[in-house]
Structures are given as structure tokens and as C-alpha cells.
Amino acid sequence: MKTLILATGNPHKVKEVHAMLEEYDFDVHLQTDFFCEEVEEDGLSFVENALKKARFASQKTGLPALADDSGLEVEVLGGEPGIYSARYGEGYQGQPASDELNNRKLLDALKGLPYKQRKACYYCAMVFVRHATDPVPIIGVGQWCGEILMEPRTEYGVGYDPIMWMPQHLRSASEIPLEVKNQVSHRAQALRQVLQQLQQERL
């Protein structure tokens, strides 16, 4: 069994990704089991930020690492919030960023627009490095598209899920069961690509 560092401290990401890794021969540990520092996410793309996180975790532990960076892009807003999705609401109405504030700022930015102008996509870049200086990291990219609702569909859910309507499922992302999400989400797509490439290496 190969030890793998999951380069995140986000419990929601851990729950989603760990469930998908269970069927593979990995002994998964969180980076927070080894260190508390966070690398600066100053890349200009999801791929760059995911790679920085993976290399940092591998450097700190000496072990292979898997990291992701993800966010939401809204077409009518020119791709915002994009790589700044997690801190999109920072300072809005004088408050620190939070899921609730991020959602409120986005809904305010789209206020009055019909559904045909509220198209949005989740994106995820997943990166696996065998060691900190791995010259050929394995990269997977996923996309999951829908529309931004006029108001939150539920009071629960992670990130923008309560306001992200998925037409193919006739429900918001926050209402989709985890076992279904692990088959269709942007993160699931990206991770599946990485795992497929890793399997090919072992053949």
C-alpha cells in the first residue's frame, strides 16, 4: 500500500476525495497530520495553484502528494470569481470571506438577470506529484456546469453549492447525494483522470 498525502485541510474536500480513493491501493493521510503551514496560492490558474500545493506538501513530508484547486466561473461576469472563488466575498459589506458572504456577493452581482444569463461552471485541477521536484506531474481537469439560482436553494452545502442549479439532476449541487457527486462533479472528473493515468503507469 502506497502512502499518499492529500494536500488540503478542507474537511469537505477530504470527504469527497477520500471516498473516491478508497477503492485504490493508497494509505491516505492529510497534510495537517504532518504540518500546519499553507503555501501561497499566487498562481494565475487552477493548475498552477494545485501544483504549488502538491509540491509543497511533498516537500514537507517527503511523500507523494495529491492536491486540487477549484472554483466557479460565471460567464456573464467574465469568468469571476474564478481562482478567487474561496475569497470572493472578502471585504464585501465590511465582512471577512465566508461561503455565505461569497454567495451573497455573487447573487447581488447577478441581481435582475434572467436564467439564460446566469450560466456558470465549476472547474477543478487535480495534480499528483511523486516527489517535490517531479518534472512530469500527473494532471486532471474537470468541468461541471449549471446555472446560478436567484436565491439559495438550501441552508446547507459547501461553497457555492446552495446557489448552483444542476439542470441534468433537477436540483442544486447541495442537494445531490455524495455518491452521485463522486461520479459527476468537477472534482470527481479531475481525480478520475489522475487515477487513470496512475493505473497506466502500473501496467
Q: How does this model look, in words?
A:
This protein has 203 residues and is α/β, with parallel strands linked by helices. It has one domain: Maf protein (Alpha-Beta Complex). The chain is 31% helix and 23% strand. The chain has five helices and seven strands. The chain has a seven-stranded mixed sheet. A hairpin with a 4-residue loop joins strand 6 and strand 7. Helix 4 crosses helix 5. It starts with a strand and ends with a helix. The model has no long low-confidence stretch (mean pLDDT 92).
Question: Which architecture does the CATH hierarchy give at level 2?
Answer: Alpha-Beta Complex
Q: Classify the secondary structure makeup into a structural class.
A: alpha/beta
Mean pLDDT: 92
User: In CATH, what is the class?
Assistant: Alpha Beta
Radius of gyration equals 17 Å
Order of helices and strands: EHEHEHEEEEHH
Physical arrangement of strands within the biggest beta sheet: 2-1-3-4-5-6-7
**Whole-number count of domains:** 1
Keywords:
globular, Maf protein, 23% strand, alpha/beta, 31% helix, 203 residues, 7-stranded mixed sheet, 5 helices
Short synopsis of the structure:
The protein is of the alpha/beta class and 203 residues long.
Secondary structure blueprint with pairings:
Elements: E1 2-6, H1 11-21, E2 26-30, H2 46-61, E3 65-74, H3 99-109, E4 119-129, E5 138-148, E6 164-166, E7 171-172, H4 178-184, H5 186-202
Helix pairs in contact: 4-5
